[in-house]
Every structure is written in C-alpha cells, then in structure tokens.
C-alpha cells in the first residue's frame, strides 16, 4: 500500500526515527544532605532540579516538582539518616511524585541506607526491616538504587531492581597511604564480620597486617569484653568499619589495642551516624584521628579537631554519569 509515494512501513519507520530524542539527565536533592547533592551536580556540570517539600501542621509531607521530568533519566539523592523515618518517608513520596510525572527512569541515590542493620532475624518475632524498605522503594517508583557500603551484602538481593553498591575504599585508602604509609601498619577489623573489608584495605596498603577484635556484647550498643586476635605491638592500628554509631565500641576497641601496646590507633569508617554525643566521646578518646566520609552530613562540634571528612560525591557523580550513559561502573566497586 502506498501513502503519498511511501509504503506504510517506510512512513512508520520515518516517523519513529524523527521523534527519537536523547533522554536528558536530571538530579534532584532530598533534604537530608543537600550540600552533598550540590557537589555532585557541580562535578556533573548540570543544574539541580527544583523540588519543594512542604510539611503540614499535622506533620504530613507533600512535594512539588518544579521541572518537567517526562521521559527523563532522573536521579534522586537522599540519605536515610537521622531523622531516619522523616527522610525515608520524604524519599518515598518524591519517588511516587516522579513516577506519576512520567519520569523515564528513576534512580534512588541513597549514600547511607538506613535500617540496613535489620537485615536478618536474630530471634523470633522480629522484622527484617531492610527488606521492607527495599520493597517500599520499589513500589514507590525506584527503577534502580545506587548506594554505598551497605551494612550487609545480602541487602542487594532484597531488591527486585538493579542495585549498585559503591565502595568507599578508593577514596579512603589514598588518604591513609599518604598520611600513615604502609610500613608498621595493621588494619583492624572491629568484629569477625568486618574481616573482608579489612582485607581489602590491607591489600591496597601493600598487604599490611590484619588483626581482629573479638567482642562479646552484653546488650545492644554495649560491649562487655574485647580480645585482640593478631599482633599489634608497636604498630599503627587502623580500625576500619562501615559506620560509627554511638562510638562506645570504637573507644573500647582503641583502649584494648593500646593495652596491647599498639603505637597509635586511627578510626576509619564510611558512614558517620554519630548518635547522641558520639563525636564528643570519640574526640575525647585516645584515638589519633577519626576519618569518615560525607554520606551523612556532620555537624562539627567545638574541639572536634580529630575529625577528618572525605568527600565521596565525585565518586557518586562518576557512577551517575556511567549509569546515565549505560556504561559499566564495576571498576568503581574496586
């Protein structure tokens, strides 16, 4: 069949090709860490999307997306840090708004994934909240998730959508190498579950020695006893962990290492949760330095001169660029 000299198939093909457009990238910031998102957009060279969050008198949230997102590749940056429930609910509401605004693809960029420590049943009649949060994010409209150093690797399997779990070591280890070298250094895992993370860092520091702290908990957030497995005498000990919460365990680990005649002790973690007076407690401890990243905003207290915050925003910006271009980001995991 001819239609003005063209076959019907030719006409359809011509129309299809003429209407194809490149999917633009758009980045929005939740209220948990806007400075972090601004740094990401600076690296990417794009403008921050307009997003207004309104809190009603009864505490309910409503959002208004000020830009057209139809068919666009959208990245929503929001750490679910304290106040965790508020930031999580805000994330879910914005995801739903983006979905209903016909965004082409929505990636939830969650530098710090709250509820990650509730990843399994340790006793009867308790929830697996990390799985619940994964289901909520997918239902709300997240097509994929970009996170950093999830507390447990199995959380990736809780999602039915792609998850990219970045590693902060490419940012942490150059700083450690520059300031503490590779000779006379021992990497310390704060528990048996952290041995793999310690091994990865030790490998990057010219196969530094590894030690493990065996701890027995009396109750949550309270450690009754600690023992060091490995030789730390005369060594610069770097305790590596995924997060620092109350800081009590870390301070006790530092004291235990010094009792074993370690030369000095440095704390290194990805997520500075810093509940309560944790930062004050850490800065008043024998720790030489506390090194963290900016996945969670840190309010610097007076006298917190031991605290060093390294930015992982450029790493997230590179991951976002590669996801947008459908390129591999596996090299960023190493």
Strand content: 25-35%
Percent helix, as a range, is: 25-40%
CATH top-level class of the largest domain? Alpha Beta
The span between the termini is 57 Å
How many β-strand runs? Answer: 16
Please state how the strands of the largest beta sheet are arranged side by side: 12-11-10-13-14-15-16
The fold-level CATH name of the largest domain is Rossmann fold
SSE-based structural type: alpha/beta
**Poorly predicted parts:** 10-19
CATH architecture group name of the largest domain: 3-Layer(aba) Sandwich
**Helix-strand pattern:** EEHEHEEEHEHEEHEHEEEHEHEEHH
Major sheet size, sense and barrel closure: 7 strands, mixed
What number of domains? 2
Number of helices, counting only DSSP H or I runs of 4 residues or more: 10
Report the principal-axis shape.
Answer: globular
What is the CA-atom radius of gyration, in angstroms? 23 Å
Give a description of the structure.
The chain is α/β, with parallel strands linked by helices. It has two domains: 169 residues, Rossmann fold, CATH 3.40.50.2020; 142 residues, Rossmann fold (3-Layer(aba) Sandwich), CATH 3.40.50. Helix 2 crosses helix 9 and helix 3 runs parallel beside helix 4. It starts with a strand and ends with a helix. About 3% of the residues have low confidence.
